[in-house]
Amino acid sequence: MYNQEYFDKYLEIIKKDEEKYYKDYLKMLDEVSKSNAIYHGEPVPVTYQGLFYDEKTRDNLGKIADKLMKITRKVTKRYIEDEDYRKLFDFSPKLEKLILHDPGYEIPAPICRYDIFYNSIDKFKFVEFNTDGSSAMNEDNEVGPILLDTLAMKELSKYYNLENVDLINSWVKASLDIFRRNSSIEKPNIAIVDFLDIGTPFEFEAFKKAYLNAEVDCEIIDIRDLEYSNGKLHKGDFDIDLVYRRAVTVEIMDKYEEVQPFIEAYLDNAFMMLGSFRSQLMHIKPIFEILLKDETKAFLEEDEILFLDRAIPKTYKFESEKDFKKVLENKDDYILKPIDSYASKGIYTGREHSNEEYEKILKKILNKGYIYQEYYDMEPLKFVEFDSQGKLKVSDFGVVLGMFIYDEKFIAPYTRIGKESLISGARKYYTVPNILVSDLKK
User: Fold this and answer.
1) Cα-atom radius of gyration of the chain, to the nearest Å?
2) Cβ burial 212-228 (10 Å sphere, 16+ → b, else e)
3) How far is 207 from 345, CA to CA, in rounded Å?
4) How far apart are CA 66 and CA 273, in angstroms?
5) In angstroms, what CA-CA distances link 81 with 31, 99, 252, 347?
6) Taking each helix axis from N to C terminus, what angle separates 169-181 and 201-213, rounded to the nearest 10 degrees?
7) Helix, strand, or coil here: 398?
8) What is the pTM of this model?
9) pLDDT digits (tens, 9 = 90+) for 110-162
Protein backbone atom coordinates (compact mmCIF):
# COMPACT_ATOMS: atom_id res chain seq x y z
CA MET A 1 0.00 0.00 0.00
CA TYR A 2 0.96 3.60 -0.54
CA ASN A 3 0.18 5.89 2.39
CA GLN A 4 -3.59 5.48 2.84
CA GLU A 5 -3.89 2.17 4.71
CA TYR A 6 -1.17 3.14 7.15
CA PHE A 7 -2.54 6.67 7.43
CA ASP A 8 -5.92 5.32 8.55
CA LYS A 9 -4.30 3.36 11.38
CA TYR A 10 -2.09 6.31 12.31
CA LEU A 11 -5.09 8.66 12.48
CA GLU A 12 -6.94 6.17 14.65
CA ILE A 13 -4.02 6.21 17.10
CA ILE A 14 -3.84 10.02 17.32
CA LYS A 15 -7.59 10.45 17.74
CA LYS A 16 -7.47 8.42 20.95
CA ASP A 17 -5.66 11.27 22.73
CA GLU A 18 -5.28 14.38 20.59
CA GLU A 19 -3.99 16.53 23.45
CA LYS A 20 -1.17 14.11 24.28
CA TYR A 21 -0.07 13.84 20.67
CA TYR A 22 -0.26 17.59 20.12
CA LYS A 23 2.13 18.12 23.03
CA ASP A 24 4.35 15.47 21.51
CA TYR A 25 4.20 17.28 18.17
CA LEU A 26 5.38 20.49 19.86
CA LYS A 27 8.27 18.51 21.32
CA MET A 28 9.05 17.24 17.82
CA LEU A 29 9.10 20.81 16.47
CA ASP A 30 11.53 21.80 19.21
CA GLU A 31 13.84 18.91 18.38
CA VAL A 32 13.75 19.73 14.65
CA SER A 33 14.60 23.36 15.45
CA LYS A 34 17.72 22.16 17.28
CA SER A 35 18.72 19.72 14.54
CA ASN A 36 20.69 20.25 11.35
CA ALA A 37 17.56 20.02 9.19
CA ILE A 38 18.09 23.57 7.92
CA TYR A 39 16.91 25.08 4.64
CA HIS A 40 17.67 28.70 3.77
CA GLY A 41 18.83 29.25 7.34
CA GLU A 42 15.60 28.02 8.94
CA PRO A 43 14.49 24.66 10.35
CA VAL A 44 12.53 22.75 7.72
CA PRO A 45 8.74 22.84 8.31
CA VAL A 46 7.36 19.49 9.41
CA THR A 47 4.02 17.94 10.22
CA TYR A 48 3.37 15.03 12.58
CA GLN A 49 3.61 12.38 9.89
CA GLY A 50 5.87 10.79 7.31
CA LEU A 51 5.15 9.42 3.86
CA PHE A 52 4.10 5.81 4.37
CA TYR A 53 5.07 3.37 1.63
CA ASP A 54 5.53 -0.38 1.56
CA GLU A 55 7.91 -2.75 -0.15
CA LYS A 56 5.66 -3.14 -3.19
CA THR A 57 5.67 0.63 -3.70
CA ARG A 58 9.45 0.63 -3.25
CA ASP A 59 9.71 -2.05 -5.93
CA ASN A 60 7.44 -0.07 -8.26
CA LEU A 61 9.54 3.06 -7.81
CA GLY A 62 12.60 0.92 -8.43
CA LYS A 63 11.13 -0.24 -11.74
CA ILE A 64 10.50 3.36 -12.77
CA ALA A 65 14.07 4.27 -11.78
CA ASP A 66 15.50 1.33 -13.74
CA LYS A 67 13.64 2.44 -16.86
CA LEU A 68 14.87 6.01 -16.44
CA MET A 69 18.47 4.94 -15.98
CA LYS A 70 18.40 2.90 -19.19
CA ILE A 71 16.94 5.87 -21.06
CA THR A 72 19.51 8.19 -19.46
CA ARG A 73 22.32 5.97 -20.71
CA LYS A 74 20.91 5.91 -24.24
CA VAL A 75 20.42 9.68 -24.39
CA THR A 76 23.95 10.27 -23.14
CA LYS A 77 25.45 7.80 -25.62
CA ARG A 78 23.64 9.42 -28.55
CA TYR A 79 24.70 12.90 -27.41
CA ILE A 80 28.36 11.85 -27.29
CA GLU A 81 28.29 10.07 -30.65
CA ASP A 82 25.94 12.25 -32.73
CA GLU A 83 26.83 15.87 -33.44
CA ASP A 84 23.37 16.58 -34.88
CA TYR A 85 21.66 15.24 -31.75
CA ARG A 86 23.82 17.55 -29.63
CA LYS A 87 22.27 20.56 -31.31
CA LEU A 88 18.95 19.83 -29.60
CA PHE A 89 20.54 20.73 -26.25
CA ASP A 90 22.01 24.04 -27.41
CA PHE A 91 24.90 24.03 -24.94
CA SER A 92 27.77 26.50 -25.22
CA PRO A 93 31.02 25.19 -26.77
CA LYS A 94 32.69 25.38 -23.33
CA LEU A 95 30.04 23.26 -21.66
CA GLU A 96 29.85 20.85 -24.58
CA LYS A 97 33.58 20.21 -24.23
CA LEU A 98 33.15 19.38 -20.54
CA ILE A 99 30.24 17.04 -21.25
CA LEU A 100 32.07 15.19 -24.00
CA HIS A 101 35.09 14.61 -21.78
CA ASP A 102 35.24 11.01 -20.49
CA PRO A 103 34.79 11.14 -16.69
CA GLY A 104 36.42 7.76 -16.16
CA TYR A 105 33.27 5.74 -15.49
CA GLU A 106 30.22 4.65 -17.48
CA ILE A 107 27.31 5.95 -15.38
CA PRO A 108 25.94 9.23 -16.83
CA ALA A 109 24.22 10.28 -13.58
CA PRO A 110 25.80 8.59 -10.54
CA ILE A 111 23.53 10.49 -8.18
CA CYS A 112 20.16 11.96 -9.02
CA ARG A 113 16.75 12.82 -7.67
CA TYR A 114 14.00 12.35 -10.20
CA ASP A 115 10.91 14.17 -8.92
CA ILE A 116 7.53 12.66 -9.61
CA PHE A 117 3.82 13.02 -8.88
CA TYR A 118 3.01 9.46 -7.86
CA ASN A 119 -0.29 7.81 -6.99
CA SER A 120 0.42 4.30 -8.26
CA ILE A 121 2.50 2.40 -10.81
CA ASP A 122 -0.30 3.14 -13.29
CA LYS A 123 -0.79 6.80 -12.37
CA PHE A 124 2.24 9.07 -12.19
CA LYS A 125 3.86 11.99 -13.96
CA PHE A 126 7.39 13.38 -13.76
CA VAL A 127 7.92 16.87 -12.39
CA GLU A 128 11.60 17.40 -13.17
CA PHE A 129 14.94 15.63 -13.17
CA ASN A 130 17.61 16.74 -10.68
CA THR A 131 20.93 15.20 -11.66
CA ASP A 132 23.18 18.17 -11.01
CA GLY A 133 24.05 18.82 -7.35
CA SER A 134 21.01 16.87 -6.10
CA SER A 135 20.29 17.79 -2.49
CA ALA A 136 17.92 17.49 0.51
CA MET A 137 19.11 14.10 1.79
CA ASN A 138 20.04 15.63 5.13
CA GLU A 139 16.52 16.99 5.71
CA ASP A 140 15.09 13.49 5.55
CA ASN A 141 17.94 11.94 7.52
CA GLU A 142 17.59 14.48 10.33
CA VAL A 143 13.80 14.61 10.60
CA GLY A 144 13.18 10.89 10.04
CA PRO A 145 14.71 9.61 13.31
CA ILE A 146 13.03 12.45 15.23
CA LEU A 147 9.65 11.44 13.80
CA LEU A 148 10.21 7.75 14.53
CA ASP A 149 10.87 8.69 18.16
CA THR A 150 7.48 10.39 18.59
CA LEU A 151 4.78 8.78 20.69
CA ALA A 152 2.42 8.22 17.76
CA MET A 153 5.04 6.51 15.63
CA LYS A 154 6.10 4.34 18.55
CA GLU A 155 2.48 3.28 18.92
CA LEU A 156 2.22 2.57 15.17
CA SER A 157 5.38 0.46 15.44
CA LYS A 158 3.40 -1.98 17.58
CA TYR A 159 1.52 -2.90 14.40
CA TYR A 160 4.16 -2.48 11.68
CA ASN A 161 7.90 -2.45 11.17
CA LEU A 162 8.89 1.14 10.41
CA GLU A 163 12.14 2.32 8.81
CA ASN A 164 13.47 5.69 7.76
CA VAL A 165 15.83 4.70 4.95
CA ASP A 166 19.21 6.40 5.29
CA LEU A 167 20.11 8.71 2.40
CA ILE A 168 23.54 9.88 3.60
CA ASN A 169 25.52 6.72 4.33
CA SER A 170 23.95 4.95 1.37
CA TRP A 171 25.45 7.61 -0.95
CA VAL A 172 28.84 7.34 0.74
CA LYS A 173 28.82 3.59 0.07
CA ALA A 174 27.60 4.02 -3.51
CA SER A 175 30.17 6.72 -4.32
CA LEU A 176 33.05 4.66 -2.93
CA ASP A 177 31.80 1.61 -4.86
CA ILE A 178 31.81 3.59 -8.12
CA PHE A 179 35.27 4.98 -7.39
CA ARG A 180 36.79 1.62 -6.50
CA ARG A 181 35.33 -0.05 -9.59
CA ASN A 182 37.24 2.45 -11.70
CA SER A 183 40.40 3.11 -9.67
CA SER A 184 43.13 1.13 -7.93
CA ILE A 185 43.12 3.55 -4.97
CA GLU A 186 41.43 1.88 -2.02
CA LYS A 187 41.15 4.91 0.29
CA PRO A 188 40.68 8.07 -1.76
CA ASN A 189 40.97 11.59 -0.40
CA ILE A 190 37.54 13.12 -0.98
CA ALA A 191 36.52 16.74 -1.47
CA ILE A 192 32.91 17.90 -1.21
CA VAL A 193 32.97 20.87 -3.57
CA ASP A 194 30.62 23.81 -3.99
CA PHE A 195 30.46 27.58 -3.93
CA LEU A 196 30.26 27.61 -0.17
CA ASP A 197 28.57 30.99 0.07
CA ILE A 198 25.49 29.49 -1.63
CA GLY A 199 25.80 25.82 -0.66
CA THR A 200 24.10 23.81 2.09
CA PRO A 201 26.72 23.54 4.86
CA PHE A 202 24.76 21.36 7.27
CA GLU A 203 24.29 18.75 4.59
CA PHE A 204 27.97 18.91 3.61
CA GLU A 205 28.98 18.35 7.22
CA ALA A 206 26.70 15.31 7.41
CA PHE A 207 28.34 13.81 4.33
CA LYS A 208 31.83 14.62 5.59
CA LYS A 209 31.09 12.86 8.88
CA ALA A 210 29.79 9.82 6.99
CA TYR A 211 32.90 9.65 4.79
CA LEU A 212 35.16 9.90 7.84
CA ASN A 213 33.16 7.09 9.46
CA ALA A 214 33.84 5.06 6.32
CA GLU A 215 37.54 5.56 7.09
CA VAL A 216 38.40 7.85 4.18
CA ASP A 217 39.66 11.42 4.49
CA CYS A 218 37.24 14.14 3.43
CA GLU A 219 37.26 17.93 3.29
CA ILE A 220 34.62 20.52 2.35
CA ILE A 221 36.22 22.98 -0.09
CA ASP A 222 35.04 26.02 -1.99
CA ILE A 223 35.54 25.24 -5.67
CA ARG A 224 37.29 28.59 -6.15
CA ASP A 225 39.96 27.64 -3.59
CA LEU A 226 41.11 24.52 -5.42
CA GLU A 227 44.65 24.40 -6.83
CA TYR A 228 46.16 22.33 -9.60
CA SER A 229 49.87 21.52 -9.78
CA ASN A 230 52.15 18.55 -10.38
CA GLY A 231 49.24 16.59 -11.81
CA LYS A 232 47.15 16.80 -8.63
CA LEU A 233 44.05 18.75 -7.69
CA HIS A 234 44.53 19.95 -4.14
CA LYS A 235 44.01 22.58 -1.52
CA GLY A 236 47.22 23.19 0.35
CA ASP A 237 48.63 19.81 1.39
CA PHE A 238 45.36 17.94 0.80
CA ASP A 239 45.58 16.07 -2.52
CA ILE A 240 42.21 15.07 -3.95
CA ASP A 241 41.35 11.76 -5.62
CA LEU A 242 37.55 11.98 -5.65
CA VAL A 243 35.29 15.03 -5.88
CA TYR A 244 31.68 14.83 -4.78
CA ARG A 245 30.45 17.77 -6.83
CA ARG A 246 27.67 19.86 -5.36
CA ALA A 247 28.50 22.98 -7.36
CA VAL A 248 25.79 23.09 -10.01
CA THR A 249 26.82 23.46 -13.62
CA VAL A 250 25.05 26.76 -14.22
CA GLU A 251 27.06 28.36 -11.38
CA ILE A 252 30.31 26.87 -12.65
CA MET A 253 29.72 28.23 -16.13
CA ASP A 254 28.72 31.64 -14.76
CA LYS A 255 32.00 31.78 -12.77
CA TYR A 256 34.08 29.88 -15.30
CA GLU A 257 37.17 32.06 -15.05
CA GLU A 258 37.19 31.75 -11.25
CA VAL A 259 37.41 27.95 -11.31
CA GLN A 260 40.11 27.35 -13.91
CA PRO A 261 42.31 25.06 -11.76
CA PHE A 262 39.30 22.80 -11.22
CA ILE A 263 38.42 22.80 -14.94
CA GLU A 264 41.99 22.11 -16.06
CA ALA A 265 42.41 19.25 -13.58
CA TYR A 266 39.11 17.72 -14.71
CA LEU A 267 40.10 17.78 -18.36
CA ASP A 268 43.48 16.25 -17.43
CA ASN A 269 41.79 13.41 -15.48
CA ALA A 270 43.68 14.43 -12.36
CA PHE A 271 40.76 13.23 -10.20
CA MET A 272 37.41 11.47 -10.48
CA MET A 273 34.28 13.57 -10.12
CA LEU A 274 30.79 12.39 -9.08
CA GLY A 275 28.75 13.48 -10.88
CA SER A 276 30.35 14.43 -14.13
CA PHE A 277 29.17 17.20 -16.41
CA ARG A 278 27.28 14.58 -18.40
CA SER A 279 24.60 14.72 -15.72
CA GLN A 280 23.62 18.09 -17.20
CA LEU A 281 21.94 16.38 -20.15
CA MET A 282 19.06 15.11 -18.05
CA HIS A 283 19.03 18.10 -15.70
CA ILE A 284 17.98 20.93 -18.00
CA LYS A 285 14.26 21.65 -18.21
CA PRO A 286 14.02 21.20 -22.03
CA ILE A 287 14.98 17.53 -21.59
CA PHE A 288 11.27 16.72 -21.35
CA GLU A 289 10.73 18.18 -24.80
CA ILE A 290 13.84 16.44 -26.15
CA LEU A 291 12.78 13.05 -24.78
CA LEU A 292 9.52 13.25 -26.72
CA LYS A 293 11.12 14.27 -30.01
CA ASP A 294 11.38 11.90 -32.96
CA GLU A 295 15.17 12.21 -32.81
CA THR A 296 15.11 10.56 -29.38
CA LYS A 297 12.40 8.02 -30.14
CA ALA A 298 14.57 6.82 -33.03
CA PHE A 299 16.98 5.05 -30.66
CA LEU A 300 14.58 3.97 -27.91
CA GLU A 301 12.68 0.70 -27.57
CA GLU A 302 8.90 0.74 -28.04
CA ASP A 303 8.21 0.21 -24.34
CA GLU A 304 10.52 3.12 -23.48
CA ILE A 305 8.69 5.39 -25.91
CA LEU A 306 5.32 4.43 -24.41
CA PHE A 307 6.73 4.96 -20.92
CA LEU A 308 7.87 8.51 -21.76
CA ASP A 309 4.68 9.39 -23.63
CA ARG A 310 2.70 8.45 -20.54
CA ALA A 311 4.99 9.90 -17.86
CA ILE A 312 6.49 13.08 -19.34
CA PRO A 313 4.38 16.27 -19.33
CA LYS A 314 4.32 18.03 -22.67
CA THR A 315 7.03 20.70 -22.59
CA TYR A 316 7.88 23.51 -25.02
CA LYS A 317 10.27 26.43 -25.24
CA PHE A 318 8.60 29.74 -24.43
CA GLU A 319 9.95 31.89 -27.22
CA SER A 320 7.30 33.05 -29.72
CA GLU A 321 4.18 35.20 -29.83
CA LYS A 322 2.26 32.01 -30.55
CA ASP A 323 3.57 30.53 -27.28
CA PHE A 324 2.68 33.75 -25.46
CA LYS A 325 -0.91 33.71 -26.67
CA LYS A 326 -1.33 29.99 -26.00
CA VAL A 327 -0.11 30.22 -22.39
CA LEU A 328 -1.99 33.44 -21.61
CA GLU A 329 -5.29 32.13 -22.94
CA ASN A 330 -4.88 28.83 -21.03
CA LYS A 331 -3.12 30.16 -17.97
CA ASP A 332 -4.30 27.45 -15.56
CA ASP A 333 -2.99 24.67 -17.82
CA TYR A 334 0.73 25.46 -17.69
CA ILE A 335 3.72 26.02 -15.41
CA LEU A 336 6.73 28.04 -16.56
CA LYS A 337 10.31 27.21 -15.53
CA PRO A 338 13.77 28.58 -16.35
CA ILE A 339 15.69 26.32 -18.71
CA ASP A 340 18.55 25.80 -16.26
CA SER A 341 17.97 26.75 -12.65
CA TYR A 342 17.56 25.12 -9.25
CA ALA A 343 15.85 25.52 -5.84
CA SER A 344 12.55 26.49 -7.56
CA LYS A 345 13.93 29.85 -8.67
CA GLY A 346 11.89 31.79 -11.20
CA ILE A 347 8.99 29.33 -11.52
CA TYR A 348 5.50 30.66 -12.30
CA THR A 349 2.06 29.08 -12.44
CA GLY A 350 -0.90 30.85 -13.95
CA ARG A 351 -3.11 29.58 -11.13
CA GLU A 352 -1.36 31.89 -8.69
CA HIS A 353 -1.96 35.11 -10.64
CA SER A 354 -4.71 37.22 -12.13
CA ASN A 355 -4.84 37.60 -15.90
CA GLU A 356 -3.29 41.05 -15.67
CA GLU A 357 -0.45 39.93 -13.41
CA TYR A 358 0.21 36.88 -15.54
CA GLU A 359 0.36 38.85 -18.76
CA LYS A 360 3.05 41.11 -17.27
CA ILE A 361 5.06 38.08 -16.15
CA LEU A 362 4.78 36.43 -19.55
CA LYS A 363 5.94 39.57 -21.36
CA LYS A 364 8.93 39.79 -19.02
CA ILE A 365 10.12 36.21 -19.56
CA LEU A 366 9.17 35.63 -23.21
CA ASN A 367 12.21 34.39 -25.12
CA LYS A 368 14.35 34.76 -21.97
CA GLY A 369 15.32 31.13 -21.48
CA TYR A 370 12.04 29.59 -20.25
CA ILE A 371 9.98 26.50 -20.98
CA TYR A 372 6.27 26.01 -20.44
CA GLN A 373 4.95 22.67 -19.34
CA GLU A 374 1.50 21.20 -19.00
CA TYR A 375 0.21 21.41 -15.43
CA TYR A 376 -0.61 18.05 -13.90
CA ASP A 377 -3.26 17.63 -11.20
CA MET A 378 -2.35 14.63 -9.09
CA GLU A 379 -4.75 12.95 -6.72
CA PRO A 380 -3.96 14.41 -3.28
CA LEU A 381 -2.87 12.31 -0.33
CA LYS A 382 -4.10 12.72 3.24
CA PHE A 383 -1.82 13.94 6.03
CA VAL A 384 -2.46 15.00 9.60
CA GLU A 385 -1.91 18.55 10.83
CA PHE A 386 -2.33 20.38 14.11
CA ASP A 387 -3.47 23.99 13.98
CA SER A 388 -2.08 26.68 16.29
CA GLN A 389 -4.70 25.80 18.91
CA GLY A 390 -3.72 22.16 18.94
CA LYS A 391 -6.76 20.96 17.05
CA LEU A 392 -6.18 17.90 14.87
CA LYS A 393 -7.23 18.08 11.26
CA VAL A 394 -6.86 15.91 8.20
CA SER A 395 -5.89 17.71 5.00
CA ASP A 396 -5.45 16.84 1.36
CA PHE A 397 -1.96 17.64 0.08
CA GLY A 398 -0.24 17.57 -3.26
CA VAL A 399 2.90 15.47 -3.03
CA VAL A 400 6.19 15.78 -4.87
CA LEU A 401 8.11 12.58 -4.36
CA GLY A 402 11.81 12.75 -5.16
CA MET A 403 13.24 9.38 -6.13
CA PHE A 404 16.85 9.33 -4.93
CA ILE A 405 18.85 7.08 -7.25
CA TYR A 406 22.47 6.22 -6.43
CA ASP A 407 24.67 4.17 -8.75
CA GLU A 408 21.57 3.64 -10.91
CA LYS A 409 19.60 2.04 -8.05
CA PHE A 410 16.54 3.51 -6.32
CA ILE A 411 17.29 4.13 -2.64
CA ALA A 412 14.34 5.95 -1.07
CA PRO A 413 11.99 8.89 -1.61
CA TYR A 414 12.39 12.43 -0.37
CA THR A 415 9.03 14.13 -0.09
CA ARG A 416 7.59 17.61 0.16
CA ILE A 417 3.87 18.25 0.46
CA GLY A 418 1.85 21.41 -0.02
CA LYS A 419 -1.58 22.82 -0.75
CA GLU A 420 -0.54 25.46 -3.27
CA SER A 421 -0.21 25.04 -7.03
CA LEU A 422 3.58 24.79 -6.69
CA ILE A 423 5.11 22.49 -4.07
CA SER A 424 8.61 23.66 -3.27
CA GLY A 425 10.87 25.33 -0.76
CA ALA A 426 9.77 28.63 -2.27
CA ARG A 427 6.19 28.11 -1.06
CA LYS A 428 4.46 26.93 2.11
CA TYR A 429 5.25 23.26 2.44
CA TYR A 430 6.15 20.43 4.80
CA THR A 431 9.06 18.03 4.61
CA VAL A 432 7.76 14.52 5.34
CA PRO A 433 10.37 11.80 5.95
CA ASN A 434 10.24 8.51 4.09
CA ILE A 435 8.77 5.77 6.29
CA LEU A 436 9.10 2.28 4.83
CA VAL A 437 6.40 0.05 6.32
CA SER A 438 6.79 -3.71 6.28
CA ASP A 439 5.28 -6.88 7.72
CA LEU A 440 2.55 -6.60 10.30
CA LYS A 441 4.00 -7.64 13.63
CA LYS A 442 2.47 -10.77 15.15
Assistant:
1) 22
2) eeeebbbebbebbebeb
3) 25
4) 23
5) 52, 12, 25, 33
6) 60
7) strand
8) 0.90
9) 999 999 999 999 999 999 899 988 888 999 999 999 999 999 999 999 999 99
